[in-house]
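Minutes, structural biology subgroup

Action item carried over from last meeting: produce the structure token record for SMR family transporter (Viridibacterium curvum). EB confirmed the sequence was re-checked against the source entry. Recorded below for completeness.
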Amino acid sequence: MKTLIIAIVSILFSVAAQFSLKAGMSGAALKATLAEPSTIRTVFAVLFDKYVFGGLALYALGAMVWLAVLSKWDVSKAYPLVGLGFFFTAAVGFMMGEQVTPQRLVGVALICAGVFVVARS
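Output recorded by EB:
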């Protein structure tokens, strides 16, 4: 049970990373930068945007936490749990006003059902 909680924490870091990256790439400053011709300055502007940088840091943190999961479980058991990220992402997206269609909900439910089957093995 403890390993499952650690896996979920890692997945939540990844979900938070996605929303942070989205915030950075959707921001007015980066949109203006990306509208100009690409240079090395563009790369640095993207990488050092506070939201993009934070999102990458959250991914790194999630990866470090994931190492604890891999130290205890087979990859074939652990990796399907990453599919739970679809559920958490859809839920957070919905709470933030994103359009979550019935078709998307069915897809997420199917992924979660698969994760449940693998977790029980």
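Discussion: The chain has seven helices and no strands.
Next step: EB to file the record with the rest of the batch.
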